[in-house]
Amino acid sequence: MTKIYDISQTLRNGLPVWPGDTAFDLRRTWQMGPGVPVNVSALTLSTHSGSHADAPFHYDAGGATMEAVDPGLYLGPALVVDARGAGRLITADDVLPQLQDGIVRVLLCTYQHAPQENWDAQFKALDASLIDALAGCGIRLIGTDTPSLDPQDSKTMDAHRAVARHRMAILEGLVLDAVPFGIHELIALPLKIAGADSSPVRAILRSL
Ligand SMILES: N[C@@H](CC(=O)c1ccccc1NC=O)C(=O)O
Ligand SMILES: [Zn+2]
Ligand SMILES: [Zn+2]
């Protein structure tokens, strides 16, 4: 039996967002009732809400925006790695021993329980040399259960810049609590939004 793991945060009013960023707001614009046959809503949200894919344009002024990113990057076998024992900067030593041959997508689990009710400013980030090492091993997509690859106070975005150099793809804000470590099929397509620096995704892992 194939097992499906929903690794997405629930988008909802009150969702914790990056400090200072736009709050998530779903507002009913038509309410079903006499003479109104349907419910319809309007959404206001940051492109980096919940589980999302960063487009290169987020961290590279000349980078591609979301509609131009190859959707195939977000579909296919992915290795879920245990990074819970790492320090504030996850290094190659934490991850490389767990890599497996032929894998091009790696998802880092840094939390026992990813916080979904509150914002954790102390989340684990990735050392840029880890990105270089993963690229050297053929990795094309890096996912994490934290809000960013770089620390919240970073102004240099070293990990994102390393990703840009290697033309890799990024998923952030995943929920990997319930997923066994190992290889599963990833399905996490970003919306085809012209000009967007990022998009929310419905991220799923399916047992292989
Ligand atoms: N780099 C973060 C997001 C980020 O930096 C951010 C997201 C929303 C509003 C402001 C942000 N950064 C401001 O310096 C990310 O990778 O999603
Ligand atoms: Zn992001
Ligand atoms: Zn990012």
UniProtKB/TrEMBL annotation:
User: Which pathway features in its UniProt record?
Assistant: Amino-acid degradation; L-tryptophan degradation via kynurenine pathway; L-kynurenine from L-tryptophan: step 2/2
Alphabetized GO MF terms? arylformamidase activity; formamidase activity; zinc ion binding
Active site, UniProt feature = H58
- What is this enzyme's catalytic activity, as reactions? N-formyl-L-kynurenine + H2O = L-kynurenine + formate + H(+)
For this protein, the record's HAMAP family field holds: KynB (MF_01969)
Name the NCBIfam families on file.
trp_arylform (TIGR03035)
Q: Which family does it belong to?
A: Belongs to the Cyclase 1 superfamily. KynB family.
Quote the subunit structure annotation: Homodimer.
Name-wise, this protein is: Kynurenine formamidase
* UniProt organism field: Dongia mobilis
